Amino acid sequence: MKLYVTRHGQTAWNRENIVCGVTDLPLDETGMEQARETARKLKDTPIDRVIVSPLLRARQTAALICEGRDLPVMIDPRIKEQNYGVYEGASRFDEGFLNNKKSFAIHYPGGESQMSTAARVYAFLEDIAQKYPEESVLLVCHGGICRIIESYFHDMTNEAFFQFN
């Protein structure tokens, strides 16, 4: 399988440095242009199927990338962003959020741990590798999920993991 991975375009909360995990927000104008730019960059790339997070910002990004192409698009909840619980809507610089982010095993209050998020993403990757071994697959997901996918294929220190963008 050949795998391409992209993050959704920008939302208002991304622009404002607000934690946005499973909160379902649309792309802003910049995000829509980012998705169109990704489409331009991928226009000559052979893609057999697109798998997208169920969150609106990812679905909008996928729709713009797929515009004018006849591609099967599948929604898979295993690549939705991590649920940050009580920190959804908080500043990305909130001390509690930053402290929780340092531990892979601790669940965000009312949300998921990084470890449980990684487990579902790793299971997803193993599943699609078995189902589509000869295909080129584009994933449209989220920054945290892209980071986990990178860690699946490459060993990363904790510092490198958190700095991956």
TrEMBL record:
EC main class here is: isomerase
Coiled-coil ranges from the UniProt annotation? none
Residues where substrate binds: R7, H8, G9, Q10, T11, A12, W13, N14, R57, E81, Q82, N83, Y84
The question of whether Cell membrane is a record keyword is answered with no
**Which molecular-function annotations from GO does this UniProt entry contain?**
phosphoglycerate mutase activity
Catalytic residues as annotated in Swiss-Prot or TrEMBL: H8, E81
Q: Which UniProt keywords apply?
A: Glycolysis, Isomerase
Q: Which GO terms describe its biological process?
A: glycolytic process
Give the Pfam families listed for this entry. Answer: His_Phos_1 (PF00300)
Tell me the CDD domains matching this sequence. Answer: HP_PGM_like (cd07067)
Key word Cytoplasm present:
no
EC number(s) on file:
5.4.2.11
At the top level of its lineage, which domain of life is listed?
A: Bacteria
Q: Which family does it belong to?
A: Belongs to the phosphoglycerate mutase family. BPG-dependent PGAM subfamily.
Name listed for the protein in its UniProt record: phosphoglycerate mutase (2,3-diphosphoglycerate-dependent)
Q: What is the lineage of its organism?
A: Bacteria, Bacillati, Bacillota, Clostridia, Eubacteriales
